[in-house]
Amino acid sequence: MQARKKYVLLGLCTCCWLLLYYWGGLQERLLGLLTHRRGEVVRPWPNWLDRDLLPGYADQAELQNAGGPGDSPRQRRQSWAGIYKDSRCRMDTCFDFARCQGQSSFRVYIYPPEKGERVSESYRKILTSVVESRYFTSDPREACLFVLGIDTLDRDQLSTQFVPNMDERIRGYPLWNDGRNHVIFNLYSGTWPNYTEDLGFNVGQAILAKASLNTEHFRPGFDISIPLFSKEHPQKGGERGWLVRNTVPPRRKYLLMFKGKRYLTGIGSDTRNALHHIHNGKDIVSLTTCRHGKDWEKHKDARCDHDNQEYERFDYQELLHNSTFCLVPRGRRLGSFRFLESLQAACIPVLLSNGWELPFSDVIQWNQAVIEGDERLLLQVPSTVRAVGTDRVLALRQRTQMLWEAYFSSVDKIVLTTLEIIKDRVNSHISRNKFMWNALPGGLLVLPEYSTHLAHYPFYYLNLGKPVQKPTRRHLNQFGVHAVIVCVLVWVSCQIIILWNSEKPPPHRSKWPPMPVPLIITDGRRKTSSRFLPNAAIETEAVLSLDEDTVLLTSEINFAFHVWQSFPERIVGYPPRSHFWDPVKKAWGYTSKWTNEYSIVLTGAAFYHRYYHHLFSHYLPSSLRALVDRTSNCEDILMNFLVSSVTHLPPIKVAQRKQYKEMPILQGTKMAPWANPEHFTQRQECVNTFASWFGYMPLVHSQFRLDPVLFKDHVSVLRKRYKDLERV
Amino acid sequence: MCASVKYGSRGPALIPRMKTKYRIYYITLFSVVLLGLIATGIYYITLFSVVLLGLIATGMFQFWPHSIESSAEWSLDRRSVHDAPLVRIPMSSPIPERGDLSCRMHTCFDVYRCGYNPKNKIKVYIYPLQRFVDEVGVPISSTGLSREYNDLLSAISDSDFYTDDVSRACLFIPSIDVLNQNSLRIRETAQALAMLPRWDKGMNHLLFNMLPGGPPDYNTALDVPRDRALLAGGGFSTWTYRQGYDVSIPVYSPLSVEVDLPERQPGPRRYFILSSQTAIHREYRVELERLKEENGEALLLLDKCSNLSQGLASVRKRCYKGQVYDYPQILQESSFCVVLRGARLGQATLSDVLQAGCVPVIMADSYILPFSEVLDWKRASVVIPEEKLPEMYTILKSIPHRQVEEMQRQARWFWEAYFSSMKAIGMTTLQIINDRIYPYAALTYEEWNNPPVVKWTSVNSPLFLPLIPPRSPGFTAVVLTYDRIESLFRVITEISKVPSLAKLLVVWNNQNKSPPEESLWPKVAVPLKVLRTKENKLSNRFFPFDEIETEAVLAIDDDIIMLTSDELQFGYEVWREFPDRLVGYPGRLHLWDHEMGKWKYESEWTNEVSMVLTGAAFYHKYFNYLYTYKMPGDIKNWVDAHMNCEDIAMNFLVANITGKAPIKVTPRKKFKCPECTAIDGLSLDQTHMVERSECINKFASVFATMPLKVVEHRADPVLYKDDFPEKLKSFPNIGSL
Q1: Pairing mode, if any, of strands A587-591 and A576-582?
Q2: Quick one: how far is CA A361 from the chain centroid?
Q3: pLDDT tens per residue across span A517-560
Q4: Burial class (CB in 10 A: 0-12, 13-18, 19+), B499
Q5: I need a labelling partner for A157 at 20 to 30 A (CA). Which of A260, A613, A674, B689 fits?
Q6: Which A-chain residues 34-93 have CB contacts (< 8 A) with chain B?
């Protein structure tokens, strides 16, 4: 009985156990199956049992040794120069850096024009740009870079502008030196039917600045891809982009458009012949015409008549204005005029040009401004552009405008960008980084000689994630400096620099009023423009420029400084002036009358960023500075032109206690120059001279001034921080 | 033990499920025990406990997580590398062609395999591991699969890029390890590659190689013939690198796993320049020594330790005149670290140097820097032509201190993000290729180059272009109203006098009452439209209605009757000059309350402004989109639930995305207490202020920062209060009470 019980119990237990085992196991298996069905990824790359035992890919000693010291560097460099030539040129091997020694020695020489030489309109513009740039030299001995006087823009043998016998002529130049340190500009190469990259002469070791460059022939870090521009492209200034406002939602009437020729035969015809496939007549308009050349009717196909008819229904300009995206397919060559046209029109380019090295691809981040399509995937283009979100359209569109205005709107900009890119390579440690090239205001306005550090510029404070470094504020008592004759006072938060611009020597130290801050006196050499020359003594970002006869209250200065901190890229000053277009004289006018708007603030009393000193003396041509020195006038207008051309924004006027220069003229002092009527006409002329150098009128009007928050409010004066401003 | 490792790798999703099953099991078990005890008494305890123990043991085993796997998978996953199938390469097996230097994505890459997909992500397939041997059985590689390559492939297989479906793959990665060319038999490796089932002339295949070339000439790219395969190589020179096709990757330094170098604050360090490399050409060492003589202590020139025996120890030590330094720790003591080329261009030292936050001074002519397609090396390193080595000191000295600090930070960030592990290197490579295939979805410069701290604190305004929009399209006034019809009509009449008004929208927020009949509304010259809402929510006022066709929106409450038409027109003119800001009339301020340790709302007559009330403010319609669709956290619901603070939320949003302060226009007026719209006894002024302060604190915590900017200025017309004939002023009627 006992034994039976025992067996029963044991059997029971075994049953339980077995049941549990199977039931549990079954459940587990079910679960496993379920989880498997739920898409659990089977681990694809096994977790090897012995993975910790795997050997390293190289032992440490081998890694640190890096294959040993290698060949003699000197020998290697010599042998490179022999191997890496022509199509394998790089700056290291095909460029003579020795010609460009020193900081300011990036000089460009142009071969003198030969008799009877005909130069095309576009090439003449290029040469003018170089001559007017700050890098031009007429002495070949000090040149670092050479530009040919022969027109090399059009190297299509069928073209009327084709210059024959290039090889012979070039070889005749004593400076040619197999093209070393030469830049050759070219827009069209090759000819029908293949349109190859062949220029029809041996370029040798010259840098090619060429449109429609193919990535396969492009020598990276050596050649420069430039955009294809028409002969009507302006020399200077150039039209602004067409985007005047950021409408929301950003989509325009048409999503995508193309209107252009289609080639019935020959290179590039594949892409263009397919374009009609994406046309839907509603939001995607893709129109092609067969009508081009003389004998198109010979190759005419079935679609031609229908296409030609549809083609006439739409106007290209109208489409350009009203389309969100613009197709930029390759033509015979890789680049087309359409690229710049759509860039200017803020119509986001959709590129269909496989293998095209985009213009200035060395420095420009194109994927932030265009959609790079693939010729092979034409049919995906509609869905791709449809999927671009609102934010991205807004950003892309603004980016097209930024790039257009910074690098493409004039021949000047295209040529200067080319030169600056080469210069950055030559002085690689004093060069712009990619951020500087791609952020506002663009690389041409950022001079790396000033600083390679982003925070030293007034433009990037928002992108750097840190506020502008605040100079310590000191409350200064009223400046007692009216006694100083013809001098300029620069107040730099805790530092005063007096620019002594007089024949007489400055008074002795002991005669200056006692001041709690360092005082530095520098010699201005009696030049008006020296007020804006970079001065190593200026250590802070903010500069307050003052005339000797300006009297400002401490609170006025403090308030203006406070405002400047919010707008470090602009001029913040007190007395406003304005410009206007005089339709009778067909010229710009200048007025000092009280008006409801202003576009200039006088720098007799104004805050601005230290960097503008550098731009003033290095970016502007010496001819304009000479004009300022000659007339002892207009330096403030020039500064306003400069800053507005950089920011595209007006200066800022701040509240002032009383009107500028209305205080009685002190006995015994000379009459101030501004009271002279001649002075005024000079300023009129200045405005026009400056506008013609810039190629457009950069000044912008503003209708407001900034006052302290409680300015003239009906509230106790004690509450107001800048109460002095309201005292009469 | 092995099983537990496996379990760990299954991921956390299964753990809770396991727990419940344990519970079921033990409940059953204990009920059996209880039953048994009752039935047989203590007599059988001994016997029973033996059974029980067995039961527990087997039960434990059976419930151990391995049972989740079906047995086939289990055995597959528990393999050793040596279990991989052996493949014999016939002598006559074809050899691929040498890499074609003219290959580019549009010529040598089959983009149709990648297709269009809404996620814009390429699919990557990894070949299963095989052991290739030649006809006599000698393996093609002396190391076989290396630890690093295994890490790389595991990382890829764990990533979103991976697919196990070979037919859907866009990119193929062979499991043949070619990281180090020295351990390879070139010809056989090439044959093995060609034997891969999808090789197809190397189309869309990606090879990873870090140490290319071999003695004596050290080619700068992998010597293995590879047809059209893409090469992710360390140590490319400009002549072997196919721009836009190959990817330049770093030479991984395994030292970083052994040594933990914590991040250091950027700043000046003990040495200015440090040279730690052991294999520097004699000519360069002479130059460096000359520099050292000229500049003394600022330079530290280290070399191998001659007295130490070879081996691991010597790798981690450096010496100078008998003094021993720890490597790589010593790198942290210098501001700049020299990375000179050796026989190879790519150097593992670069990785060590970046890890130490030391700014690399790279002197390797023609070297394509790692990931240079996307990384801006000018911000993290100094590249000097080898010829200019003698000028190195002067060049480095000319760099501003603050820039050096930024470069140190940048260098460390590059290491953390792109160099620190094989996973980082692999993912970056795939991302770069992904960016080429889907260029319209590519990461931006900022995303690649800005360290996280900059990404968090910098702003990239969506309206960054400096535009002053034309006056002509005017603005749309959006009046939010509930039931104050009389005051609403007065507001409408007032606003309609503003010259630039283009359209009037009345947002009727009262669901219980219909708006008055059309005939009762004041007659205005511009279109007027009443929009009835479904719910009485404050957010309705910021909805991006299609009816708003202008850029500029004037948000105005139905009780703001005191603004003159001059003031409104002037406000619009000011907005045109600041289209990316809020331009409003009553200004408010936030303050830090030191006693309470939190933010406080201030509406007194202050000298500063950080917010403008949207009871009367101009702003860009884009911000309506942001408010409605992109408002962070639960702020929008919070505002609707509390029926308050929508204006503060808008101020936070705009300030956060633009980094700029709002603009207050025109002098302060006696606003009819715009804060207390519910003056009908619902809320007292005091509680209202408390609530608004709470809002600020709540929003600041959601934004994880205080985006508001304080300014001391407001905008007035140029001739405001100037001694000038009133009738000649553009905006004479400003500031009247």
Answers
A1: antiparallel
A2: 13
A3: 667 777 666 677 777 877 777 778 888 888 777 777 878 888 99
A4: exposed
A5: A260
A6: 35-36, 41-52, 54-58, 60-74, 77, 80, 84, 88, 90, 92
Residues of chain B with pLDDT under 50: 1-21, 61-75, 673-683
Q: Which residue has the tokens 């400069």?
A: A642
- In this predicted model, what pLDDT tens digit does every residue of B7-37 receive, in sequence order? 333 333 333 344 444 555 555 655 655 555 5
Q: Scanning every residue of chain A, which has its alpha carbon at the shortest distance from the alpha carbon of B363? A: A73
CB contact under 8 A, A244 and B467: yes
Report how far apart, in Å, the C-alpha atoms of A384 and of each of A319, A378, B438 are.
Answer: 20, 10, 10
Nearest CA in chain A to B278: A65
In eight-state DSSP terms, residue B67 is: G
Answer whether A519's CB lies under 8 Å from A498's CB. Answer: yes
By C-alpha distance, the chain B residue nearest A567 is B660
Task: Quote the ipTM score.
Answer: 0.87
Q: DSSP characters for B485-548?
A: HHHHHHHHHHHTT-TTEEEEEEEE--SSSPPPPGGGSPP-SS-EEEEE-SS--GGGGG---TT-
Split at pLDDT 50, 70, 90, the class of A70 is confident
CB–CB of A704 and B574 under 8 A? yes
For residue A18, what pLDDT band results from cuts at 50, 70 and 90? low
Q: B440, B424, B251: which is closest to B350 by C-alpha?
A: B251
Check CB contact under 8 Å for B70 and A32. yes
Model confidence, pTM:
0.88
Nearest to B145 by CA among B169, B127, B121: B127
DSSP state of A514: P
pLDDT, tens digit, for every residue of B529-573? Answer: 999 999 999 999 999 999 999 999 999 999 888 899 999 999 999
DSSP annotation of A211: T
DSSP A546: E
Check residue A726 and give its pLDDT: 81
A466 touches chain B (CB under 8 A): yes
Interface test with B, best of A247, A363, A425, A709 (most B CBs within 10 A): A709
A186 - beta bridge partners? A210
A720 touches chain B (CB under 8 A): yes
Query: Mind telling me how many Å the CA of B193 is from chain A's nearest CA?
Result: 19
Do the chains contact at A597 and B718, CB–CB below 8 Å?
Answer: yes
N- to C-terminal Cα separation, chain A: 123
Inter-axis angle of helices A677-694 and A622-631, to 10 degrees?
A: 180
Residue range A270-300, pLDDT digits in tens: 888 889 899 998 899 999 988 877 777 777 8
> Stretch A146-153: mean pLDDT, rounded?
92
Cβ proximity of A650 and A585 under 8 Å = no
pLDDT of residue B70: 39
Give the helix/strand (H/E) hosting B3.
Answer: helix B2-9
Residues of A tagged active-site:
636
Q: Distance between CA B390 and CA B301 in Å, rounded? A: 15
A647 reaches B (C-beta below 8 A): yes
Of A66, A215, A702, the CB nearest to B343: A66
Q: Where are the beta strands (DSSP E) in B62-119?
A: 86-88
User: Percentage of chain A surpassing pLDDT 70?
Assistant: 84
The pLDDT of residue A145 is 95
Q: Do A704 and B126 touch (CB under 8 A)?
A: no
Measure CA of the first residue to CA of the last residue in chain B; give whole Å. Answer: 84
Put simply, whether B625 touches A (Cβ < 8 Å) is yes
User: Whole-angstrom Cα distance, residue B431 to residue B316?
Assistant: 33
Find the CB nearest B116 among A24, A216, A383. Answer: A383
Q: Say yes or no to pLDDT of A499 above 70.
A: no
User: And the tokens for B636?
Assistant: 């929008």
Helices (H) and strands (E) in chain B, counts: 22, 25
